[in-house]
Design goal:
Radius of gyration: 17 Å
Strand order of the largest sheet: 5-4-3-2-6-1-7-9-8
Distance between the termini: 13 Å
Structural class: alpha/beta
Number of strands: 9
Oligomer: single chain
CATH topology: Dihydrofolate Reductase, subunit A
Shape: globular
CATH architecture: 3-Layer(aba) Sandwich
């Protein structure tokens, strides 16, 4: 798929690959352990891309701002896929700091749609019952989005991995172990369940920022 934005998944993960302390918890609690230099690294990526995406579950749980704050640079367009249309109108993503696009289905109520648009943001309705990320990526490219940073959550990451839409994965390791069987990891969903289908990566770089190890991985395109 050539007509798609260049896509980077970035996430903070514990040494055992967890995103939160428990299922339903905000990732912000673990992120308090991150060094300022790791925050700068993350925000440097934000400042270089056209758009930034998180799922609506992340919006409800973490209430992120998705803006550039630790370095100089422009704010990317905030893009939120939310098939249910269940998104809090007082969320930080509706601040005036940056433009926000909500990608949804006819399940979103007209009242919520009008309220979002009244704040100066955009709502795009896709006619399928659930959001198709291949269709979304083609749509974003047609809208002029050439690069996008995806910061989760695990189900959005699975959609990108499953559909071979991701080009890079960059991980910031928080030096703790959380444990637990039902705690979200970097990629959720059904999983590939076959070695012949797994997504192959190539390590491009690894380095330390503050106390955090950071790894940068490229997707190996000729693997299926």
């Amino acid at each position: 798929m050539s007509n798609k934005p260049y896509t980077i998944i970035t996430s903070e993960v514990t040494v055992d690959g967890k995103l939160t302390l428990y299922k339903g918890a905000s990732s912000k609690e673990l992120m308090t352990l991150m060094d300022i230099e790791a925050y700068k690294y993350l925000h440097q990526i934000r400042a270089k891309v056209d758009a930034i995406m998180v799922g609506c579950e992340t919006v409800r749980t973490d209430n992120p701002s998705l803006t550039v704050r630790y370095v100089e640079g422009k704010n990317p367009i905030r893009i939120i896929p939310c098939g249910s249309g269940n998104i809090p109108l007082d969320a930080n993503i509706f601040s005036k700091d940056a433009e926000t696009w909500i990608l949804t289905t006819p399940r979103m109520s007209e009242e919520i749609k009008r309220a979002i648009e009244s704040k100066g943001h955009k709502v795009f309705i896709f006619e399928k019952e659930s959001l198709d990320f291949v269709e979304i990526w083609e749509f974003l490219y047609k809208q002029g989005i050439r690069s996008i940073l995806v910061e989760g959550g695990s189900n959005v990451n699975w959609q990108l991995v499953k559909n071979h839409l991701v080009d890079e994965i960059r991980l910031i390791y928080i030096p703790v172990i959380v444990g637990g069987e039902d705690i979200p990891t970097l990629v959720g969903g059904d999983g590939f369940k076959s070695l012949s289908k797994v997504l192959h990566l190539r390590l491009r770089s690894h380095f330390v920022r503050g106390r955090q190890l950071i790894t940068e991985w490229e997707v190996v395109k000729n693997k299926k």
